[in-house]
Amino acid sequence: MRVAIAGAGAVGRSIAGELLENGHEVLLVDKAPTAISVERVPQAEWLLADACEITSLDEAALQRCNVVIAATGDDKVNLVVSLLAKTEYGVPRVVARVNNPKNEWLFNEAWGVDVAVSTPRLMSALVEEAVSVGDLVRLLRFSHGDANLVELTLPDESALAGTQVGDVEWPEDTSLVTIIRGTRVLTPTQEDSLEAGDELLFVAAQAREEQLEDLLSVRREHPAD
């Protein structure tokens, strides 16, 4: 997979390193000469250019990219890069960094953004995830389909503890994608049972989040003494 990253700062270089380790082809683009640090990510391609200019993106051969990541520290730049990548070059997947949470509402399909990643929001979500049991935590927003990646840790008293995945009537527009159980990461099957303490990751429509939280958090009925 070929990935172009606009912004060769600490964030862009970190993303590039991870992608290269996973066997992907990476191009880093930045207009600041001081940001071109080939020795830091020597396996990547480097381009000194303004990612907001069509001529630069032509030179980067953006039409050959499977993914473009707008990772600069400027939200305006990230929006322009995203829009150009999607509308001018038809890049299938565009991921954009949101620096200021107040601008998050702009990072949507209208600007060519498939996935918007807000670092402040993600950090706060991870804090919530670490301390919350039985509460739905939104980790990531997908622009297409108005869907989110959400997490909930199944509480001890959940009525679904011990229930097989296939026996649960999940809300519409909701998909259980991963069960994290201790140190194990499970791809759920219909026969897998849910256990108290499981971290459940879903892709769910925003309109279904409250219904999903209610389903997972409902408590068992204890027999009367």
TrEMBL record:
All residue ranges annotated as the RCK N-terminal domain in the record: 1-117
Record GO biological process: monoatomic ion transmembrane transport
Domain RCK C-terminal stretches: 137-218
A Pfam short name: TrkA_C
Domain of life: Bacteria
Endpoints of the signal sequence: none
Keyword Magnesium attached: no
Annotated keywords: Ion channel, Ion transport, NAD, Potassium, Potassium transport, Transport
Gene3D superfamilies given in the database record: NAD(P)-binding Rossmann-like Domain (3.40.50.720), Regulator of K+ conductance, C-terminal domain (3.30.70.1450)
Ion transport as UniProt keyword: yes
Official protein name in the record: Trk system potassium uptake protein TrkA
